[in-house]
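Project channel, design review

CF: Before we commit to the Pseudonocardia acidicola constructs, I'd like one complete example in the thread so the newer folks can see what an input/output pair looks like. Taking NAD(P)/FAD-dependent oxidoreductase.
RD: sounds good, go ahead.
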Amino acid sequence: MVVTEVIVVTDRLSNSYDVVVVGGGAAGLSGALTLARARRRVLVLDAGHPRNAPASGVHGLLSLDGTDPAELLDRGRAEVRRYGGQVVSGEVETVVRDDDGFVVEPAGGRTVRARRLLVATGLVDELPDLPGLRERWGRDVLHCPYCHGWEVRDQAVGVLATGPVSVHQALLFRQWTDDVAFFSRALPLTDEHAEQLAARGVHVVDGEVTALEIAGDRLVGVRMGDGTVVGREAVAVAPRMAARAGFLAGLGLQPAPHPMGEYVAADPTGRTDVSGVWVAGNVTDLAAQVSVAAAAGAAAAAQINADLVAEDTRRAVQALRDPFSAETEARVGELVPGDRRHGL
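CF: and here is what came back for NAD(P)/FAD-dependent oxidoreductase:
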């Protein structure tokens, strides 16, 4: 009888969780770690498409500066598992409301149930259609100066205009090098922006950009429409950023527009307009670096746990008041296996 009971409990735990974390990057794993340490049943579903995969290292992360992004994630997964959390590969197709929780359906996987949802799926960088650009992304084609500025310090840097934010990007990279060229790509500059660039010694290059010039697996310049090549050692570009959030449509949660793309709106704690759903990392904060995303994941997890504690307390009070109610019997059946798992 004891063996049979253990098998049933294990099966229950593999399909029902306190929190399902969608996304296994810095934000998702940090949130899962916090929740696992709070003794919550946690499942991380990770599609395996980290935004920073092309980068050689994660920078600005205290004590881990320069760590390979893949190594950082491997460490994070191991830490979550050390505290009993589960991390599995899987891309979520749909999420629907089910009573007071959620049903999460991974592509080709087994449907699982969650009391709460933490979405940390990040975003997709939509780059200009320019030959050579995508292949160099994360290497010598860059976006964030705080992530890569030190690595291209004192080099010849080009900034490809994609919109008004590109001027700000050029002024930022000017902090790391005095050789910055702004490729306008026929996008008009306001008088104010032109004055700012001139004041900081940023050279404006007008005309069509047709490709990046590559030699020996290194970027060496920007090819113009007239065939000339402007020598550059690195290029910065501000992509359009699209939140990975299509699977939330079934909950009525749609990405909100942003000048740089789209994001999932939330309050400062990560709580969305859909009850029971939190977000953390780049899916809601387009500018978040790894350190900020990880902190947001931990903060959102603490809020989720507090929300669950409040719900558990309400149920316990209800059971105390009416120990024979149908709801109490159902909740006892749900909570006892978790207690036994921890030896209580």
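RD: helpful, thanks. The chain has two domains: 2-125+240-341, 128-237.
CF: Residues 1-13, 336-344 have pLDDT under 50 and may be disordered.
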